[in-house]
Amino acid sequence: MGNPKKKSKKVFIPLAAVVALAIGGAYYYYAEYSRYIKTDDAHVDSDNVAVSAKALGRIAKLYVDEQDSVKQGQLVAELDSTDLMAQKGQAEAMISQAQANQVQAEAKLAYDQENIKVLEVNLARAREDYDRAKQQIAGDVITKEQFGHIKKSYEAATAQLAAAKTQLSVSRSQIASANAAIGSANAQVGVIVSQLRNAKLYAPMDGVIAKRWLLAGDVAQPSQSIYTITNTSKLWVVLFIEESKLSGVHIGQAADFTLDTYPGVTFTGKVYAIGSNTAGQFSLIPANNASGNFTKVTQRVSVKVSIDGTRGEEPVSKYRILSGMSAVVKIIKD
């Protein structure tokens, strides 16, 4: 017969192991879930801004490339402006021609105004002669032939003044046309100057060229990205937690996180922003339950955590943290 004591020892060892595992599991659950809100649906994020052209144009020059640091206002690219410069030259020539026409029309207007003054004097004299002649012909002082000459002179003076006034109106119209042409050409030059200004592309903020999308010689479409600039001076961790856990999160709450790039290093931060919508609200095809086909899916809400320091002695500045790095975040429950 076997020894009963040995059999009891064989049974006790596995049972003790099971109890130890259960206790360890319970402690892990307590440590991980009762004290923290944990998620691995998280990554480092940053502000990313696109540099794009406002109008269609061929890229003439690229002054920076990927991983180059840039300052706000720095010239980073330039579109071909050959056609625009030619158009600007044509518009400026139109301005010069219109200005010359304006000067000529104003000189003609001044002449017409002086000429009208002379013709008005002539007409007044001719009218006096004509009125006197009508009295003289009635008294047989002058002959019909003489009266006819005086009448024709009066009619000619009247016609000359009328023609001069018509010419005055023409001169004024020519001045107005010249002014309109100058205004139109100036506006055209203004548009071209604006387009020339837009042909030079500047960095909208300090940062690093994270991506160059086009090459010199490529045709950039309006609003098409040529560069993407990342602001590396301000990084944060964005995480997405289940809506059922949101009630346990508030602004200012402490958080720890790790990065796959630096195993064993725990970084610290604080919750500083909580999304006002669930992530599903911004999906390309939002859920539509009007048809009656409904499948409940737990929604997630974005939370932003600052990057403040580490749990070790090394400062966070020692570590090269990049936008897009994967993270595991624990928000410490109050």
Automatic annotation (TrEMBL):
Record key words, sorted: Coiled coil, Membrane, Transmembrane, Transmembrane helix
Transmembrane regions: 12-30
GO cellular component: membrane
Record InterPro entries: Beta-barrel_RND_2 (IPR058792), MdtA-like_BSH (IPR058625), MFP (IPR050739)
Keyword Transmembrane helix annotated: yes
BP GO terms, sorted: transmembrane transport
Membrane topology of this protein: Single-pass membrane protein
Residue ranges constituting the Multidrug resistance protein MdtA-like barrel-sandwich hybrid domain according to the UniProt record: 48-230
Coiled-coil ranges (or none): 88-136
Name of the protein: Membrane fusion protein (Multidrug efflux system)
Record organism: Acetobacteroides hydrogenigenes
